Amino acid sequence: MMNQIEHNQPVVIAAKNLAMPPRLLPVSFEVGQGEIVHLIGPNGSGKSTAISMLSGLVEPEGDVMFADKPIQEYDLQMLAQQRCYLAQQDKPAFSVGVYHFLSLSLSALGHLDGDKVQAALDEICDALKIADKLNRSIQQLSGGEWQRVRLAAACLQVWPDLNPDAKLLLLDEPAAALDIGQEATMYKLIRRIASKGIAVVMANHDLNRTLKEADKVILLNNGSCVAKGKPEAVMTVDTLEKVFATQIQRIDHQGQACLLFTD
User: Fold this and answer.
1) Domain named ABC transporter: which ranges (predicted)?
2) Does the annotation list 47 as a binding residue?
3) I need a labelling partner for 220 at 20 to 30 A (CA). Which of 25, 54, 246, 255 fits?
């Protein structure tokens, strides 16, 4: 049985002294079932490094416990059945249809009910507004369209209606190439997945979105953990100004905190 954290959430993944010096110095944290954790910080602060080590594809210093078992004990098939890792990636050189590309994300899950697959596909593609792209080649997509297709594939892999073993979604800067409307739909979908019990860890650059959307924040700078905890506690003006070397003003608008960058 998995350990518990606050609000009686089972711990999905726990990192203790996670490190890859000098890119990432030791940091420890836990992520609970249905929790959304944002890694924030300037470029080169260690966000992508941390996420790659949580994926099990890059051997870390320190310990990573995934569902109460060392992540090194999982083979690739087991990892693919329980977590999805969406790395930063350019469009591949090969050409394949969008529908076929999405179906590949389910290849590790074995035989699936066709009606359930179609229902999940419809829900995710409608949410990301790519239902009209299914018959296109991925080479015909814009950067934002391609990113949304990749997001759809990642969500399908850990969609609980299709994959009851799914526990974790890892996203490295998923908002890259998205416009503000597409970002909004992405964050809604991420919250929907978390509400189904999937833990989400993502690297993010939009601090206002983190302030609004994250349940927990880990602030990194030059490979070191500056602060971690609830967004309102971590993302103070003084702390963010020091880390990002810019002037910031925090205001409240209709009960919602907002950060203004004044430099």
Assistant:
1) 6-247
2) yes
3) 255
Is 208 annotated as ligand-binding? no
| Confidence category of residue 2, pLDDT binned at 50, 70, 90 | low
Neighbours of 22 (CB within 10 A): 10
The verdict on whether residue 43 carries a ligand-binding annotation is: yes
Which domains are assigned to the chain? 11-261 (3.40.50.300)
Distance from C-alpha of 136 to C-alpha of 259, rounded to nearest angstrom: 39
Residue 46 in marked binding region: yes
pLDDT digits (tens, 9 = 90+) for 8-63: 689 999 999 999 999 999 999 999 999 999 999 999 999 999 999 999 999 889 99
Consult the annotation and say whether 144 binds a ligand. no
